[in-house]
Predict the 3D structure of the following.
Amino acid sequence: MRFPFLLSAVAATVLLAAGCKSQYDALLSGNDVDAKYEAAFKYFNEGKYRKAAEMFESMSVLVSGTPQDDTVQFYRALSNYRFKDYYTAETNFKSFLDKFPRSPFSENAEFLRVDCLYKSTYRWELDQTPTYAALVAINEYQMKYPGSLHSAVCRRMSEDLEERLDYKAYQNAYLYYKMEDYKAARVALRNVLKDDADNIYREDILYYTALASYKYALMSVTEKQKERYMVFVDDYLNFVGEYPDSSSRCKELEHLYKKAKEKI
């Protein structure tokens, strides 16, 4: 006796859901700007950011050139940002800034675009093209808004991205060392500092440069060892001159230095 009632309840639920969906779709495809505007902010305030973004987008053409235009375009971008669709949001913010450079929303839009670019970067092992793009945008924002409330956040973003690039450069060079290609390792490690003397992994780079030159000399034929041990001595002196307080590494390299002097 209860089975038909359950079927009716399920059917009613399905019909109700279908009715709600069709109501949203009808509003989305309609031309009632006021209803769309109200619904879009309702979805936004309820945290239904995908629906809000779609609704704001659906009225973009309808409000073009009106006082609502920049608000709709900004909240379209912001809805995608809150939905964590950073690629779309960044495109939206860029379009907004191109169209409304003097809008009251402009500074916030520019920062959020920077944040989208930052959030779209990859781990150090992967392509760092997005990292360079994010750094350019961060620098431009900081120059344009030097007193911004977001300045500290921008500095942290920049430091994080710079560290990522430094680490990638260091690891790419260190890979030769791990492969025991010590000649290539020394060249690659020195090139990292040639390109960026302030690399934050400078101590590690100088340390492995010295180790690479020692091991290269050690593996060399006898007639070339003296010359190559002298290269190690230079690398050793460079390291201990810059990092005299790196006790364990200095001690290790000093031990190798004493061995090298016996060969020179």
